[in-house]
Amino acid sequence: MAYSSGFHPHPRISYAGAAPTGSESEAEYVEIGLAQETSPQAVHEMLDESLPPGLDIIDVVPSAGGALHDRLEASHWRIRLPGTSPDAVRSATKQLLAADEVLVERMTKKGLRSFDCRAAIVTLRVAEITASGDECAILEVVLRHGTPSVRPDDVLAGLREVSGLEVGSAALFARLAQGPLNEQAGTVGDPLDPDRDAV
Prior knowledge:
Radius of gyration: 19 Å
Structural class: alpha+beta
Distance between the termini: 21 Å
Oligomer: single chain
Largest sheet: 5 strands, mixed
CATH topology of the largest domain: Alpha-Beta Plaits
Number of domains: 2
């Protein structure tokens, strides 16, 4: 790994668009500066060896240049809501999507912030309902990245704001993808495609 210059060298490593604490993710990205040219396969093997079980390296590609962070425009999330009525979630979702603006509050590093969670929502739908004895609504949401970043719990706060929907603390968040946003289709692409195309 390459290190920065100066009195206090730091490893040249950057985590782009890290998921919020406590959420599951299948789409986390890291950029690592290397001291010498190394094959992607060798880097893949070294990283896999050093990580604990459950943290899997999916792909390693050489950078074609530019900041990876700039390609991470949106995230696709799945939100599981155990014990929550699917009909109530459907109704709340319609109300949220019909609103021009929905203000929510969250404590950030800069203190309590109020921001519009509706503006970040590209798509929001009830994707699936599981019938395993307990009610469980599953939401699929694509969120546009911004400052401050709107997270899945902010979407739930927005649903509560417009409809009074209470989902409790059992909500489970999983990021399925993050990358460039296709605004028209409401989908998230692969941010590593430009690097693969350059190889």
